[in-house]
Write a structure and sequence with these properties.
With 271 residues, the chain is of the alpha/beta class. The strands form 5 sheets. Strands 2-1-15 form a 3-stranded mixed β-sheet, with helices on one face.
């Protein structure tokens, strides 16, 4: 297995809080330790750097506690950046902040015509875009994604509100392999996944419930929540090297390693 050097965008959780509930993980009455969230996030960033990946950072904006979840800030493939349109008004102001960063970084910009929550629901797997829908990203946005990026788009219907984004139910391990929770998908989407990825790793509900599938892989190393011990063992059996991190504070808002990490694909050579 060959590791591919990655280029990531992250956002420090300086203003992280759980002030509202827009997914089943969020409880505004539960205490949140922002300082601990920052330390856990810094550990994740250091893991990436230790693996040789490049990490860029966007400046956090006061009043946007979920801006730490950079994966929702856009979709970046082959030097093109699709901006986002959030479903919930609480996150709406994140979209222009991320768009401005992409524009300043020199990406070719495209604006969404429909609700589209970035890499939370749009995952590049080999020569296909897996596109989630059912809770956040609108199905109508999938056609625009195909037109902009030129990859065949495969719609994935999510059915469990706990796994409200595709990246909470499926992780791309390399160009040929994914890991996923079958129960998070409709019957038809399960059939498609079996056809596309017959050698996929199937996660258990126990590992999915600690956001074990909200993982980041460079083709060899898989960074995932340390609580997902069963999934980590399965991945090691397949030859992947796993690195566990604790993002328990950010999980209070429904986020894990992948939620905090947006991949910046500069061109076709970086795929």
């Amino acid at each position: 297995m060959d590791a591919t050097r990655q280029h990531f965008l992250m956002c420090r959780p300086t203003y992280f809080a759980v002030d509202y509930a827009i997914n089943p993980w969020m409880d505004p009455t539960a205490p949140v330790d922002t300082d601990l969230a920052v330390r856990q996030w810094e550990r994740l960033r250091q893991v990436y750097r230790d693996l040789g990946h490049t990490v860029e950072e966007i400046t956090p904006v006061p009043g946007l506690p979920d801006m730490v979840f950079a994966a929702n800030g856009g979709t970046v493939i082959d030097g093109k950046a699709m901006a986002v349109q959030f479903r919930d008004p609480q996150r709406a102001d994140e979209a222009p902040a991320y768009r401005a960063w992409f524009e300043q970084a020199g990406f070719e910009m495209y604006d969404p015509k429909h609700v589209n929550e970035g890499e939370g629901d749009i995952l590049l797997a080999g020569d296909h875009l897996l596109a989630g829908t059912g809770f956040r990203t609108a199905h109508a946005s999938h056609a625009q994604l195909q037109e902009v990026f030129g990859y065949p788009v495969i719609t994935m219907q999510l059915v469990d509100p706990r796994f409200y984004h595709l990246d909470t139910a499926l992780t791309v391990l390399d160009e040929r392999t994914v890991a996923y929770l079958p129960e998070a998908f409709s019957r038809g989407s399960q059939a498609v996944l079996r056809r596309l990825f017959p050698d996929a790793v199937h996660a258990t509900m126990a590992d999915a419930e600690v956001l074990g599938l909200n993982a980041v892989s460079d083709g060899r190393h898989v960074v995932l929540p340390e609580q997902a011990t069963g999934l980590a063992a399965k991945l090691r059996e397949r030859g992947y090297q796993t690195i566990g991190v604790d993002l328990s504070e950010l999980r209070k808002a429904g986020g894990g390693p992948k939620c905090c990490t947006l991949r910046l694909r500069q061109g076709k050579a970086s795929r």
